[in-house]
Amino acid sequence: MEGFNLRHLTLAVALSTSMGAAFAATDNDFVDKAAAGGIAEIETSRLALEKSQSADVKAFANMMITDHSKANDELVAIAKKNDIEVPDNTTMVKQAKEKILDMRDESFDSAYANNQVKAHEDTIELFKKQANTVTDDRTKGATELKGFAQKMLPGLEKHLDMAKKLQAAHPDK
Out of the domains of life, which is the source (predicted)? Predict the structure, then answer.
């Protein structure tokens, strides 16, 4: 049943990064996907704090909540400063929770770890595209969003490395 659990976690993350990472993102698309991805990370990590009994999973989940909350706050500030519409936080949290509420407890740690690897791979792809975009000074916030993406990439890559270690410690059964 691990696939069942992972499928539900993956649906929560699909609110953001993996749904359109293959397409070139406009600034609004990037803000939407990055903000939604951060919220999905926070919500799945809150669920991990409730459902997991593993100290390493809980420590990783706490780090995800802290880091992604800070990143989302910074992203929202850049977007608002440049009149870029920010997705409604309450709606995205509700959507993320609806996708993960019916998860089962069995093999949660494995499903969470697998999800974190996939989510961070997708997020890194999205942020690399934004970091490598050619900016046009006429585009509101483009330079700041590019800088934000460049600044966040090392942390996201560190999260991916840590998620892979978590995945190795909690293999599918």
Answer: Bacteria
